């Protein structure tokens, strides 16, 4: 007889492993299926964690090479790429092993192999069958390419290949000015590559606040990244010397030719549903190939649920984690809740870019009356002391109630600063709440307080 579980989670990324741990914490007999050798999914193995290791290391390299002298430290750094990559691999290993430990601690059964749903309540893992009252699809997403362009992970790479280049390319073309393109483009620029970002739209970072997008592009350009916006790549061919590309204006027009040692394809990701047997069991996909779910994360088949990148919403690890927790709690008979207006987004370049809630453009489109307060890091004492004065904090609040509706930041450590606003928004707080909260001096957080004060036209330091 096949082993029976209360919950079988397919996929051990941030959505799946967190869901499995929470299910187990709540007393549900839980298994998590993973086909990769190590746990943690894209995020821990080939995404967030290794990219942050390389971003952090390359940032230090750049600081030492270009900014130390200004503050009185004379040194000439020499890059040892092999060691930098080895450190990144160590970080990944420690993190993935950490999930193994957490599975053991919480008594989550780790089923190694590819999971396939053979019927409602039945999962096969590499041919072996298991029964489950609840099946949770948490298989994440995969890179997409452009028509006719093949990612070989050597010369034309996805984020996976870009995290493991054996040497610094002289030139790199990044297709897509989104999060991956800017983070990994930044890593290789800092290490010495000439980086050009080609973006289809008129501005980089689609979906973010217009002012932040403009400021980000200005700063990254000053750092040495070239941008070709409003341009689409029509072909890319890898040869022995590098990659030849053709592009044309997004609106149509004369073709242009470019070449580079390495091309990074970063035009988005698609839900990963291959080999899961969804069609056979009747799990419906939406028009964009995502698993369709209701507000309880249940698919079109009773007892089969889905969370994370494979369903609608931003493809972010923390969104997947929160969905995993909420679903586990609902399966255990409790209630759960996610406010999708309160999910932060962060781009881990330097300066960082962070946002939560509505942008000014969205508020205008939706006809919502709002007030805006902005504070530049140039006027923040701590930012000056750090030598990091680029960027600003902007807070948007409802004109009638003062409730915070969004925050958009570019500047030092804004990936951490955004969290204050996220918490205030979760509690439906106001700009006045932030403005009247004591913020330690001298900290970068004072820029958030001042932006909240600026919503009411009473900032102190500008
Ligand atoms: P993205 O959706 O952020 O950006 C893709 C960019 O490619 C867009 O700006 C788009 O306009 C552009 N594009 C599309 N077709 C093009 C073409 N033919 N020529 C030129 N440009 C074109 O996708 P990205 O950066 O690949 O990231 C994938 C997912 O991973 C995103 O959902 C992202 O949020 C997530 N991610 C999040 C990170 C974070 O939170 N720090 C880090 C890395 C990835």
Overview of this protein structure:
The protein has 462 residues and is an alpha/beta fold. It has three domains: 3-143 and 270-338, FAD/NAD(P)-binding domain (3-Layer(bba) Sandwich); 156-267, FAD/NAD(P)-binding domain; 342-455, Enolase-like, domain 1, CATH 3.30.390.30. The chain is built from 14 helices and 22 strands. It has helices spanning 14-25, 41-46, 48-67, 81-106, 159-162, 179-190, 210-223, 278-281, 317-331, 360-365, 381-386, 414-426, 431-435, 446-455; strands at 4-10, 30-34, 109-112, 115-119, 122-125, 128-137, 141-143, 156-157, 171-175, 194-199, 226-229, 231-238, 243-249, 256-260, 262-265, 269-271, 304-306, 345-347, 352-357, 370-376, 392-398, 404-411. Strands 1, 2, 3, 4, 5, 6 and 17 form a seven-stranded mixed beta sheet that branches. A hairpin with a 4-residue loop joins strand 12 and strand 13 (243-249). It is globular, with a radius of gyration of 23 Å. The N and C termini lie far apart (72 Å). Bound molecules: 1,4-dihydronicotinamide adenine dinucleotide. 1,4-dihydronicotinamide adenine dinucleotide binds next to helix 6, strand 10, strand 12 and strand 18. 1,4-dihydronicotinamide adenine dinucleotide is lined by residues 146, 175-181, 183, 198-201, 206, 232-233, 266-269, 314-316, 345-348.
